[in-house]
Amino acid sequence: MAELALYQILLANLVVLAGACLQGVVGYGIGTLSAPLLFLISPVLVPGPLTLNATLLTVMMLARNRMAVRVREVRLAIGGGVVGTCLAAATLMAISPRGFELIFGVLILVAVGLSVAGWRPRLSGRSSVLAGMASTFMGTITAVGGPPIAMIYQNERGPLVRANMSAFFLFASLLSLSALAFSGYLGAREWLLFLVTFPGVIAGFLLSAHFVGRIDGERLRGLILGVAGLAGAAALTRGLLSL
C-alpha cells in the first residue's frame, strides 16, 4: 500500500492481535492498548481502521458471551452514547489534522488517568448513561472508549462484564462509524487499511479463548496502562511539535 510500508502493516497486525486477545480475556482493551501504538506506527491507522476492527471483534465476543447480557444497563449506556457520538462528530468537523493529533494525545492520557484513578462508581442507570456518553465521545475520536464504561463494571462478574461491554461496544462502534463517515474520517482508505489489519483481530480473538479464566486481567493492567500512557504522551508531543 502507498500509505504504509510492509513492516508497518505487520506491526499493526501484531498490535491489534495483542489488543484483541486482551479484550477477549478481560472484556475491553483493544482501544486502550492498540490505539496509541497504532498512532505511533502511522496516524492513518486511527480512528477509522481500528474502530472497524473493534466492531468485528465485538461481534465475535458478543456471540461468545451473549447469554450473560443484562439488557437494562446496556440500553441506558447506548442512550448516553448517542449524545457522546454527536458531540464527537461536531468536534471532528471543527478541528484541523494538527488539532486531531493534540486532542488524540490528550484523550489517551485522560483514558489512562480514568483507569488508574481508583474511582469505583456503582453500576446504575445514571452511571450507565454518563459512562456511555463519555465512552462514545472518546471512542469516536481515539478508538479508546473502554475506560469510562469499564469503570462501572469493576465490581461485576467476568461473564457479565464481557457480555454487557461487548453489547455496548457493538452499538457504540456503529454509532462511532456513522460519526466518522459523516465527518470525513471514514472512507475508502480506512476500509482498505481495515482489510490489511483485520487478520490480527481474528488471530487475537481465537488466541484469547485459551486464556479466559487463566490470566488475571489485573496483573496485566499496570503494563497495559504504562504502554498506553507513554504512547499517549508521545502522540501529544508529536502534535505539539507540529504546531
TrEMBL record:
Transmembrane spans: 37-62, 74-96, 102-119, 131-153, 165-185, 192-211, 223-241
Membrane topology field: Multi-pass membrane protein
Major localization class: membrane
Compartments reported by the entry: Cell membrane
Superkingdom of origin organism: Bacteria
Cellular compartments per GO CC: plasma membrane
Keywords carried by this UniProt record: Cell membrane, Membrane, Transmembrane, Transmembrane helix, Transport
Record PANTHER family: MEMBRANE TRANSPORTER PROTEIN, TRANSMEMBRANE PROTEIN YFCA
Family statement: Belongs to the 4-toluene sulfonate uptake permease (TSUP) (TC 2.A.102) family.
Name used for this protein in its record: Probable membrane transporter protein
Organism: Halovibrio salipaludis
